[in-house]
Specification:
The protein has 470 residues and is of the alpha/beta class. It has helices spanning 20-29, 79-85, 89-95, 102-115, 176-180, 192-200, 212-223, 256-264, 267-276, 278-281, 286-298, 389-392, 405-408, 418-430, and strands at residues 13-16, 37-40, 119-120, 123-131, 136-144, 150-158, 160-163, 167-169, 186-188, 205-208, 232-235, 308-311, 314-322, 326-333, 338-344, 346-349, 353-355, 397-400. It is globular and about 75 Å long.
């Protein structure tokens, strides 16, 4: 990537959001000196789910699923090179850990973000528009000061945009009344560590959500409560506290091969599949389940059972506060078709995240967007939003990262596909195979006809020429 172009020269690429996806793209774009790219993020620094960096919690993909390795293992931004710069290669080698801790993955990404040029934190993107006179996108942003207040306003022009604005905490409608009113501690799991001390002082705690974050929060609370006086309740909608599908062939759903197969399916089939594949990405790591059972079992060694209730197959119908110190959850057991009430002193909502809507940031482009029958944006095999022909004919495009589950399947948010997706975007931008990508990635053939590899892109308009010293 390069230094800013001369005034009036549009950039080749503007990235909006600096999470793992766009950080991957920025790292792989770094050696491409012909590409003028810049990335904006409104937060002051990189952080990755800080409220869930619980001691011992591990990411659910191998360390090779870092920002760059699966596209370019020789990159200076690999996890192994991060360890080398910290003189930690030998300790990591002897630790024999294929799955690293979340806190370590976060520290690795911070190292990349702090050393990679072209990243601008404290920059909030306010609007994106198409300028038909210049045949470029206009990006308006606000430069924030250290206190998050307005420091300056700015505008840049670019031929291409990549959206990596991530996800946001999801709170089901029946539980919203709890969050909107003050008093009794009710926190989303993404803020768990910030509120753990206060939560642990509560007499009775309920965890809602039967996925990985719910399991990790329940385990951490269990470990910090006295034996026999745990007073914990863990409920979730799924029919069991089910393990993540982690068989070797099952994992092939997180390959480029499956992504291409899924993208080629009709829209109704894709939507139907999305509701049946929850165990591929919403289950619980088997090691975490084992740790919970071990901790519960340890508490029975001297007789008695821990004061902890674990009930799957339960949904919260409604919820409210009793006076100022209690919460009442109205529960329904889905299989039994029975109802009950649960009174508790604190609630942790491990109810997951949802893709952050693109509508606000792309409001100025709404007339140009093409949508499916559910009003979701069409996204092609190369992660480009479908735009009207007047824009597409110029060679400009808007790419999306981790906002394409409805078109690309369960692998969209998976860290293991981030480098491949970033390399695909960069190959399309440069019009050549800048990164050589594999033609086959799975032993499974997902259809009766093998889905062909996405053909090389036609070279787009020439990228901004460099000037001496840029």
């Amino acid at each position: 990537m390069t230094t800013p172009p001369p005034p009036g020269t549009p950039r080749d690429l503007v990235g909006i959001g600096i999470g793992p996806s766009n950080l991957s793209l920025a790292a792989l774009a770094h050696p491409l000196t012909e590409l003028d790219a810049v990335f904006y993020e409104q937060r002051p620094t990189f952080d990755w789910h800080p409220g869930l960096l619980i001691d011992g919690a591990r990411i659910q993909v191998p360390f090779l699923a870092d920002l760059v390795t699966l596209a370019d293992p020789t990159s200076p931004w690999t996890f192994l090179n991060y360890l080398k710069t910290r003189d930690r290669l030998y300790p990591f080698y002897f630790a024999e850990r294929f799955h690293i801790q979340r806190a370590e993955y976060d520290a690795y990404c911070r190292w990349v973000a702090e050393n990679l040029p072209g990243l601008h934190f404290h920059h909030q993107v306010d609007a994106v528009r198409w300028n038909p006179d210049l045949d470029v996108f206009e990006v308006d942003f606000t430069h924030l000061d250290a206190d998050g207040e307005v420091h300056a306003l700015g505008r840049t022009h670019t031929k291409n945009i990549v959206l990596g604005i991530g996800t946001q905490p999801h709170i089901p409608d029946p539980l919203r009344p709890l969050v909107d009113a003050p008093g009794v501690p009710v926190v989303h799991a993404c803020d768990y560590l910030d509120h753990r001390t206060a939560l642990l002082t509560a007499g009775h705690i309920t965890v809602v959500g039967s996925g990985q974050s719910g399991a990790e929060v329940f385990l951490d609370l269990l470990r910090h409560r006295p034996t026999g006086r745990e007073r914990l309740h863990w409920i979730g909608r799924t029919e069991a506290f089910a393990p993540m599908e982690y068989s070797k062939l099952g994992l092939e759903h997180f390959t480029p091969d499956y992504t291409r197969y899924f993208h080629a399916l009709p829209e109704p089939v894709r939507d139907r599949l999305a509701t049946t594949q929850w165990q591929l990405h919403k289950g619980i790591d088997a090691t975490t389940l084992a740790a919970i059972h071990d901790e519960l079992y340890r508490r029975t060694l001297h007789g008695g059972w821990p004061d902890a209730v674990l009930t799957p197959g339960v949904r919260v119908r409604t919820a409210g506060r009793i006076a100022t110190s209690k919460i009442e959850l109205h529960l329904e057991h889905i299989q039994q078709n029975t109802r009950s009430r649960l009174t508790t002193d604190a609630v942790v909502l491990a109810t997951g995240h949802r893709e952050r809507p693109l509508d606000r940031i792309l409001a100025g482009l709404d007339p140009h967007l093409r949508r499916d029958s559910s009003q979701r944006p069409h996204i092609d095999a190369r992660f480009r939003l479908a735009l009207d022909p007047t824009i597409a004919a110029t060679g400009s495009a808007i790419y999306v990262q981790n906002a394409e589950r409805h078109t690309h399947g369960v692998g969209a948010p998976d860290l293991g596909l981030a480098a491949w997706r970033s390399a695909t975007i960069l190959n399309t931008l440069t019009g050549k195979e800048t990164y050589q990508l594999p033609t086959r990635t799975a032993f499974t053939t997902f259809g009766l006809e093998t889905q062909p590899r996405v053909p090389p892109a036609r070279r787009p308009p020439t990228l901004t020429p460099l000037v001496e010293g840029r």
